[in-house]
Each structure stands twice: as structure tokens, then as C-alpha cells.
Amino acid sequence: MATIAWIGLGHMGTPMSAHLVAAGHTVKGFDLSEHACAEAAQQGVTIAATMADAVRGAEAVFTSLPMPEHVRAVYDGDGGVWALADHGALLLDTSTVDVETSRWCHEGSKRAGFAFVDAPISGGTVGAEAGTLTFMLGGEDAHVARAEAYVAAMAGSTIRCGGAGNGIAAKLVNNMMLMIDVLAVAEGSQLAARLGLDAKTFWDVANVSSAASWPQQKWYPVPGVVASAAANHNFDASFSGTLAKKDVSLAVQAGEAAGVQLPAAALVLSQLARLVDEGLGEKDCTLITKYTVPEGQLAGYDPQR
Ligand code: NAD
Question: pLDDT (tens digit, 9 = 90+) per residue, 266-304?
Fold first, then answer.
């Protein structure tokens, strides 16, 4: 069993590192938030006082951080992973970042003498808690093979996506497609209702027809149709508007760099930005459905609650 460092013990990092503990590894965790450290300690993670203490002696170093700038700050500089980790350690970033930041991590790690694998995840906090996340791995074959052994305890599926940055590229494209599908379901669900269709009857049609999609099946934004939908709980988040906006904006940025036109992604991004601007970023991303109907008329949403 290995000694593993985990930097960033948030909504994803704590349940993910808990699976490594359960698999018999020693996990040394570090986070700037005392609350996050206390939660992780309850799961058997050994809390380190400094990042240096966390990474010293670790065979693998995982990061699970909010934004690309946090990832860059944690790797770089005198107090960063490259300066502090033991040589020979495998570095894995599970954060959702832009492709450029991921490639920067690969190049910097190589220069500093480390193996790095981009290892973004899909499945949300439910998948993190259940240990059923999808891992999308990018990097050199030998490094990815090493990574697979560590992520196994947290994963339902692990997919080798190719070279440096390909894991994050797959993650961003997947989430961009998901959010375009969310917009389709937002508009379709409300049009069906206004045309007089019973919501469950139309859902049954779509479910076995050409409009079937993941958000149609799991997140249908009408109360009482699908048990797992946020619409049943006043649109409290299972995947927040803020995180969805982050992921789509990184995909749009990648499209601009690659010279690919993404008008549908730009449209859903503008709606997610509007949600965040209204102070509703911590609500579920499917709350963009409210922009399809007159203000105050979305079934299942009470702004006062
Ligand atoms: P989070 O904000 O809950 O956790 C991030 C943690 O990093 C926080 O506890 C914060 O204190 C800590 N942190 C920030 N800077 C730090 C530093 N310099 N040193 C140590 N700790 C630091 O975020 P999360 O929901 O756990 O997401 C983590 C990453 O996973 C993000 O990149 C997110 O986009 C991605 N992701 C999240 C989900 C999800 O459903 N939450 C799903 C897939 C991917």
C-alpha cells in the first residue's frame, strides 16, 4: 500500500481520498480550509500542517482544486509541488482546468523531473462518494498505467484518452455537450407543457425516441417526473450553475483557440452567466429552464424558498 498526498479536500477531494484510505493507502491531506480538513480527518485522512508535510514521502500527489489559477499556484514556485515533492512521485490533477493549464502542468512536471497525468473526473459528488467516477486520463502510456493503479479505488470507469491534456480535452467536450443537452431539455420540457402534453407522457415519448439524452433521463426539469431531478427540490444543486458555467466557458475558450465555432455552447454559457449574475449560481444548472417561460412561472421553482 502507498503513501499518497491529497491537495484540496473539498466536495470531491474528501470523498475521493476517503476511498484511497478505505483501500488501505495512507493519505496525507492538505487544504487551506480548516472545515475541509476536519471533514477529511473524519474519513481517515491524515491532515498535514503544510503542503511540504503532505507531499514529503508521497509516491503519488493528487490535486483537486477549484480553478486553473489554484492548480498553477499549487504546482509552481518555492512552496509548490514541483519544489517540495519527492522525485519519482507521480503527479495527478483531477481538477477541471483549461487545456493550456493542463499542458503547462505536463511540461513543468517534465522539466522538474516528475511524471504527470491529467486525470479529470465525471460523476459529481454522488460518484465521488460511491467510488464510481469516470476518470479520463491523459499523458505518456507508462505514466497513465501507473495512474490507473491509484485511481482504481475511486473509479467506475477509467479511460485512456491519449497524450498530454487529452483527459481534460475529453472532459471539457463532454460537459459542453451535456450543457447543450440541458438547454434542449429546458426548452423542450416547457414547450411540451404549454402545448398541453402531460409531462410524464412526453418524457416517456422522448425517452424511447430521438430526443433521449442524459439530462432528459436524469434531470428532467419538471417536478414529479424523474426522481433524481433538481426540479423536485426547488432546484437545489446536484450540479451547480457556477460549476457548469466554469466548464462551458473553458470549452468555449478551447473552441476559440482551436478555431471551432460553438454557437450553441455560447448560448448556454450566456444563460449560465445570467443565472450566476442573478445570485443563483449555487442553484442547479437546470434552473436555466426559467428563462424559457415568463418570470415566476417555472413549475417547481419558488424564488422565496
Ligand atoms: P471545492 O471548492 O469544494 O474544493 C476545492 C478545495 O480546494 C477547497 O476545500 C479549497 O479550500 C481548496 N484549496 C484551494 N486552494 C488551495 C490551495 N492553494 N491549497 C490547498 N487547498 C486549496 O471544489 P470541488 O467541488 O471539490 O471541485 C474540485 C475540482 O473538481 C474542480 O476543479 C471542479 O471543477 C472539479 N469537479 C467537480 C465536480 C463536482 O460535482 N463538484 C465534478 C467533477 C469535477
Answer: 999 999 999 999 999 999 999 999 999 999 999 999 999
Buried b (16+ CB within 10 A) or exposed e, 189-210: bbebbeeeeebeebbeebeeee
Residues of the chain with pLDDT under 50: none
Q: pTM for this structure? A: 0.96
* CA 291/CA 151 separation, integer angstroms: 39
- Binding site membership of 29 for ligand 1 (Cβ less than 6 Å): no
Q: Which CATH class is domain 170-292?
A: mainly alpha
**Domain 3-163 is classified in which CATH homologous superfamily?**
NAD(P)-binding Rossmann-like Domain (3.40.50.720)
Mutate to test the pocket of ligand 1, among 34, 64, 178 (most ligand atoms within 8 A of CB): 64
Grid cell for residue 95: 481538477
Distances (CA, A) of 253 to 97, 151, 156, 180, 245: 11, 28, 29, 16, 12
Domain limits, the chain: 3-163, 170-292
Q: Which ligand 1 atom is at minimum distance from the Cα of 74?
A: 18
Cα separation, 43 vs 297, in Å, equals 43
Task: Say how far apart CA 112 and CA 124 lie, in whole Å.
Answer: 32
Which is nearest to 51 in space by CA: 19, 25, 77, 14? 77
Ligand 1 and 11: CB distance under 6 A: yes
State percent of the chain over pLDDT 90: 99
